Amino acid sequence: MWDILPDVREEDAGPGTDRVDVLLAARLAELRNERGWSLEELARRSGVSRSTLSRAERREISPTASLLGRLCAVYGRTLSQLLSEVETEPAHLVRAGVQTVWTDEASGFVRRSVSPPQAGLRAEVVEGTLRPGADLSYDRPPVPGMEQHIWVLDGSVEMTVDGTAHTLRAGDCLRTRLWGPTRFRCLGPEPVRYAVVVVLP
After folding, report:
1. Which residues contact residue 42 at a Cβ distance below 8 angstroms, ignoring those fewer than 6 apart?
2. What is the CATH number of domain 96-199?
């Protein structure tokens, strides 16, 4: 029997709740149900346990960046695309105050969608911040072959692409196409802040 889509609406995201997390949980459940997959099938495809998937869809846990990375790969979306689906379509001018900010407390990662995905545009711009010692890994890219430009604004980060580690400091830029696993590690002692430009193939 298929699991029932949680009845989570935008108006449920009231005081004391994180609006993005509430809408994200509902969207994750929608994506699975649109494909007619059970939680067991999604667990098989993503490598994430059934219980974790169920709790994420019911907002019993806040999904980590690593978990969302696995689900985005299964659903063929970038994280920015997924987050944009729970927001209204952005205007051409995206003011700082309306840019979506998502925090993964478990890994120490803060993600700001500076220029979200939009119909007719292939690129998006993201600002990432990692606290000292933070270590963030993705098993695979959400869209194989997608182009990524990482420009460090403050601090330093070690980025590993397909087994090769690169140390980036303020002002450095790494340009690559993603086919395999990636890893971001903040070298500290200060947080690292960087911009990521993503271009879909």
Report:
1. 32, 48, 50, 53, 71, 74
2. 2.60.120.10
